[in-house]
Amino acid sequence: MRSASILLAVFLLFPVVARGQDISARRAELEKNLAALEGQIAEQQKILDVRQRESVTLERDRDILNAKIERAKLSIRARTLVIEGLSREIADKETRIDSLSGKIGREKESLAALIRRTDKIDAFSLAEVMLGGKNLSEFLEDADEYRVIKNALRDSFRALETDKTETEEERSSLAEKRGEEVELRKLQEFEKKKIEAQETEKRRILKISRGIEAEYQKIIRAQERSAAQIRAELFTLRGSAAIPFEKALEFANAAGKKTGVRPALILGVIAEESNLGENVGTGSWRADMKSPRDTVPFQDITRRLGLDPDQMPVSKKPWYGYGGAMGPAQFIPSTWVLYEERIARATGHNPPNPWEPQDAFFAAAILLMDNGADEGGFAAERLAALRYFAGWTNAKKKTYAFYGDEVMELAEKYQRQINILQQS
Question: Residue 16: pLDDT band by 50, 70, 90 thresholds?
């Protein structure tokens, strides 16, 4: 009985980590709710897909806006659930890490005491046992028990090492989850702004039409016939005079011819990145870039172009990461230098200038080509845009889907405008 008690005490020293049923239930509920929301989002996307293929009518445009707004709201709710799930998981992991750390400390103390006891038994000689008046069979029984404990100690030490590894992995996973939570919160705020803009557009359509379909059709036809309207709507690049749409289209067409990427997609990406060159950033390389990854190549780029680095606009550093993206295509310096030779061969500008519109168009087109956009078709173009934004590893994550959707909407818009100009 004494032996069994000692072994039971050793067994209880091993770490046992169990997740509470309440945590599992909450997680299951979150996953169920998230799946339901994703189903509703898919339904709204189906409505969009169907309505966008229909002829232009007031009702159709209202339905499209309603579906976009509802899809965005559902996306925010879905992300809120994801964030809640992450928060619960982070709290759970923090509790587990604290528990592991405490158990490791307690085991070390207990095991040290046991080691000292077994060492003392090993140090006894037979003469000492006999002179001490202890029955030999009792001594051997005790010694045998402690030998069993010694073996258990070896296993426990191995378990301790495993606990250490698990603790380190948990901490690493915790840091990664926190990063994902920050990214989700950023995208959630981005979606909110998009909803506000879409609701404003919805009110505008309702105000100008008030159900008068004929008047709405007149507005649409007038817009479609007006190439001047298209030119006025399109962009002015920072640091230069307003560039006519024909010139922008010339860049996109030339870049598309070299790379096989659809010109409307090139326009769509640059529109999403910098509002077609209007918003190339108000940051400073000294304050907003990651050093030395981007600061060193940035200084080299501006030196070779004969530009003052302190005068060149770059994107500001957001609260969740680094800035420093350059020009209409919003390349970071460390990526730009990888593409310089190819851009130079395409444009004849050596070195190429990320703030120069033609170079920016070719840079975007070449990167999109490398990302698979030259294959053509909606799926390939959307995936290429997502790779442009999030890289190959993150391109298929649902978190970043909004970027691909918005680029493809912009590409469709520019394709319609290009078609109108070609027919006029």
Answer: very low
Q: Structure tokens of 87?
A: 């928060």
Instruction: State the pTM of this model.
Output: 0.59
Query: What is the band of 182 on the pLDDT scale with cuts at 50, 70, 90?
Result: low
- Which two structure tokens, joined as six digits, stand for 378? 């909606």
CATH class assigned to 227-423? mainly alpha
* Contact assessment for residue 273 and residue 332, using Cβ atoms and an 8 Å cutoff: no
- Following DSSP, what letter does each residue of 221-284 receive, concatenated? HHHHH-HHHHHHHS---TTSPPPPHHHHHHHHHHHHHHH---HHHHHHHHHHHHTTTT----B-
- CA geometry: angle 193, 382, 360, nearest 5 deg: 80
Decide which of 419 and 340 is more confident.
340
Using the structure block, give the residue that is written with the tokens 């649409």.
220
- pLDDT of 17 > 70? The answer is no
HSE value, Cβ hemisphere, 13 Å, CA-based, for 140:
4
Rounded distance between C-alpha atoms, residue 223 and residue 208, angstroms: 14
